[in-house]
Amino acid sequence: MPRLMAARERSSTYGFAAIDDRGRIAARLIFGALGWVPGTTVACRERGGLVVVSADRGGPIRVSLKGHLRLPAPVRRWCGLEAGSRVLLVADPDMGRLVVHPPAALDAMISRYYADVFGGDAV
Question: Superkingdom, according to UniProt (predicted)?
Answer without folding.
Answer: Bacteria
